[in-house]
Write a sequence for this structure.
């Protein structure tokens, strides 16, 4: 087994429960780690036999454009879609962070991290 990580994917989106968040949006950071059997592509050197991190990045970007009230909902959609589209993946951990959240204090970010196994 092996892991592929995508770190610090930066996206602007309109998630949140506040009207201002829905209208002007916020900056987000997404970190992803997947587990899959990478032994064959490690030998063959063939992209077709591994989990393409471009595909993973596209799933994240597309799901982040779908507005949600809660980060939990966004994270679950990302996990569900990875399992649906990429059969080699056996485990997914995703962390979605809202940068400078409007919570009435000096907070760098708030994050939700979900993990699921096939």
């Amino acid at each position: 087994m092996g892991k592929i990580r995508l770190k610090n994917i930066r996206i602007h989106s309109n998630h949140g429960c506040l009207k201002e968040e829905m209208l002007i949006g916020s900056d987000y950071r997404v970190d992803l780690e997947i587990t899959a059997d990478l032994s064959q592509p490690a030998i063959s050197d063939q992209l077709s036999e591994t989990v393409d991190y471009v595909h993973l990045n596209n799933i994240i970007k597309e799901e982040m454009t779908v507005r949600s009230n809660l980060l939990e909902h966004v994270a679950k959609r990302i996990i569900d879609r990875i399992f649906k589209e990429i059969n080699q993946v056996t485990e997914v951990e995703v962390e979605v962070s809202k940068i400078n959240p409007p919570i009435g204090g000096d907070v760098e970010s708030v994050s939700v991290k979900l993990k699921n196994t096939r």
